[in-house]
Every structure is written in structure tokens, then in C-alpha cells.
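Hi L.,

As promised, Hypoxanthine phosphoribosyltransferase:
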Amino acid sequence: MRIADIQEEIDHELIPHERIMGRIQEVAAEVSRDYKERYPLLVGVLKGAVNVMVAFSQALSIPVEMDFMSLSSYGSGVRSQGEITVRQDLSTDVEGRDVLIVEDIIDSGLTLDWLKRELRRRGAASVEVFALLEKPERREVDVDVKYKGFEVPDVFVVGFGLDYAERFRNLDSIAVLKASVYEGEHA
Ligand code: XMP
Ligand code: MG
């Protein structure tokens, strides 16, 4: 789905598809160099990271393993609920593995901080992060993100995996919704 298909709901496009793919390609080249001969485990955080995982993993020039985890930190609204719980766990034993977490967006950093600790607790040899987007203004915890796609301002964004009430995940770019889309929501 493209911006033109849902024009009446979009305020403006923030990052076009081509720029997203170009940046993912650059990060993938860097990661391919850094993890040469290490066979990393990519851990995608459901559901938002699915689109990033597909584009990123295909852009890598090294073999990787992939697994997914579902964590709850946000409901259907736009604000953090603070507590993190595992909705669906990995099926892979991370002990001794070089893990690269793949995330759609780092907001407060709480989800990521929790996940990094958890994977280390399970015995991962290393834990690094690739986040497509980052909202620096919203950071609450100092968590290291080695690979970053783009910085975005403190606005709610959708597309390329990111949703508003489960919608817009299949938009091929990153965009800001019109305020009217949120009307009636008390997030
Ligand atoms: P924290 O605050 O733990 O949150 O870093 C990360 C998770 O929050 C969600 N999130 C967003 N989802 N548009 C979205 O669709 C946004 O602008 C946004 N900001 C945060 C997202 O699930 C991310 O993994
Ligand atoms: Mg997420």
C-alpha cells in the first residue's frame, strides 16, 4: 500500500520507500562485514519489526538465523503502558549466540532495555540492536543501539510495519497520520 492509496488519512510522508530501502541496504552492508563468519541470530520484535526484518535480512550478504518474539508494551493506543510481558517467546536457545535484535522504533527505550537484559540473562554471547527508527527526544533509558536507520521527531508514525490500532502496517513508507484519524481515541 502506498501513500496515494490512503491520501485522505495521511498528513504527510516522513520517509519515502526508496530512502528506507537505501538506508537498510547500507546498514545491511555494515552488519554483513561485522558478523562475517559468525552466523548471527536475528530476533525480530513482533509485529512492528516484520517488514524491517524481511527487507534487512534479504539485504544481508551473510547467512543468518531468524526468530521472533512478541512483547507487549503498547496497547492499541499511542502511549506506553510501561510494563513488559512476553506474549510469544523465541523457539531458539540463545545461549552462546550472537544476537542482533531487529526493531521498528525505539521510543522510551524501555522495551529494548528489557529485551537486551533478558537475552543476556539467557546466555547470549553478544546482543546488539538494529532499529529502523529512533525518537531521541523520548528516550527514558540509556540503552545502546549499534545500528540505526533514521531519527524521527516526537510524532506518532505509521507504515513499514508500524501501526495505529493495527492499521497501516502494510504502508510501504513512513508517514504521519492526520489528527482526525485519532479523533475519539483517548490514548
Ligand atoms: P519503547 O517506549 O519501549 O517502545 O521504546 C517501543 C515500541 O513502542 C511502539 N511505538 C510506536 N509505534 N508508531 C508506532 O506505530 C510510533 O510512533 C511509535 N512509537 C513507539 C513500537 O511498538 C515500538 O516497538
Ligand atoms: Mg515494536
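The longest helix spans residues 17-34.

Thanks again for sending the construct details.

K.
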